[in-house]
Amino acid sequence: MSIKRSLSLAAGSAALAALTATTISAPAATGTTGPAPALGTPNVVADGLDNPYSLAWGAHGKLWLTEKSGKSVLSVNPATGAKSTLLDLSNQAVSSGQDGVLGLAVEPSIVSRARGYAYVSFTYDSGQAEESTGETRRTKIVRYSYDDYRKKLVSPTTIIDGLPASIDHQGGRLLIGPDGKLYYAIGDQGTNQYSLACRQNQAQTLPTAAEVAAKDWFAYQGKTLRLNRDGSIPTDNPTISGVRSHIWTYGHRNPQGFTFTPSGQLLEAEHGPKTDDEINLLRPGGNYGWPNVAGYQDDDSAYVYADWSASSPTPCAELTHSDFEIHEDVPTTKESEFTARFNEPLDTFGTSVTWDHDFTGAPCDESGLYYICYPTIAPSSLTYYKPASGRAMPGWENSVIMTSLKDGTIYRLGLNWTETDVVAVEPLYTDQDRFRATIVSPDGKTVYAITDTAGLVRGEGDVPTTDLTHPGSLLAFPVSS
């Protein structure tokens, strides 16, 4: 089994600088010569946003975005920064932790003719406790018509509801694919860790035919979905273990990056645990290993699957979960013990650590905010760089732009010509910000990015900080050659 290490990032700015100097080659990814484009100093288009999450082009050249915590969909004029509310979900959505108003997919006819549908995903309180967890949160995807006269999203139609939701690992990316289907990413709900340690991870669980018939979507945790635009199951969806459902792929932890390439390849990025953020090429029916495997199946020093929910004889409820010490009653399995067929990632980030790596060490030892110092970067979105008109900037052909939360960096991932592998990684811009998503201007000369309103990021000397440079903002980065 092949193991790729050359593009993986280690923790800290010094390691990133070393990576830039030794392994990144923009010409190798594109076949061009000369300096590659770069992102210039950003202009603040709009601020005061309440945890923006998804970006899309809307009608009349406006940018549409969801506000996770603000429970709304906004329209922003990229030239003036003027904001207006397209949809107010404050009386319907709930938001605490990583849930709220998340996914946004806009039909092309809205962009071209100011008419058509937009699709929004958000969490709500169902009022019904799930039997095994007691969770009442659920996620729904709702279709809205765009009213160009009122400049509002109206006439809601729920296409699917009852999807899993919790305070953690929501995923929440929503796309319209080149086949006209909806694609949606759902995380593993943060099970088997922290306050949810006693909830069993369901990323490898597949629904039964009876559950699908009953519209019981509990097993959709840790999955990507493919839906008809009315919410039904496409007839050409994969049959997995004898059952056809909305599930496109499974075995995911926290998928937050989602983008299609021009040839129709679906790329996905997800957060790893202490190591092994992943970039995956999604194949229908594919298993991507989580929680049994993180990254490559290499039994590295940083990961073993410890199933806290199965603790015996001491029950999980009587244990105190730790990210560093596994109680003797908690069953564990090595990655190499996972025998199911699964797809390895195209690349990983924060993978190469030694057996004696100290995950509780400086610079996080004083604050105790250890997770921000794990060598992962928390990739939060993927955007294929393709101008709607004209040619790509020389040096950025066949590239994906990736944002990150923990190290405040926007990256370019260079793909091979078949769009099936990552062959270069280039940091484009770093600041003390949590970059949530990007979108490219029609001429390809500007990259727009949204940032979290609050949260931890690695600051100077990799010390964790909540002092963000551009909190809750829409930024415009000029692309310069």
Compact overview of the structure:
InterPro entries: 6-blade_b-propeller_TolB-like, Glc/Sorbosone_DH, Quinoprot_gluc/sorb_DH_b-prop, SndH-like. This protein is mainly beta.
Structural notes for this entry:
This is PQQ-dependent dehydrogenase (S-GDH family). Residues 49-294, 373-453 form the Glucose/Sorbosone dehydrogenase domain. InterPro entries: 6-blade_b-propeller_TolB-like, Glc/Sorbosone_DH, Quinoprot_gluc/sorb_DH_b-prop, SndH-like. With 481 residues, this protein is mostly beta strands. Helices cover 5% and strands 35% of the residues. It has helices spanning 13-22, 26-30, 108-113, 209-213, and strands at residues 38-39, 43-46, 52-57, 63-67, 72-76, 83-88, 101-106, 117-125, 137-147, 152-164, 171-176, 182-186, 223-227, 239-240, 243-244, 247-250, 255-260, 266-270, 277-282, 286-287, 305-306, 332-333, 347-349, 379-384, 399-404, 409-415, 422-430, 435-440, 446-451, 457-458, 464-465, 474-480. The radius of gyration is 21 Å and the shape is globular. The two termini are 39 Å apart.
How many β-strands, per DSSP?
32
Q: Helix content range of the residues, please?
A: under 10%
What average pLDDT do the residues reach? 91
Indicate the CATH architecture of the domain at 48-362 and 379-397.
6 Propeller
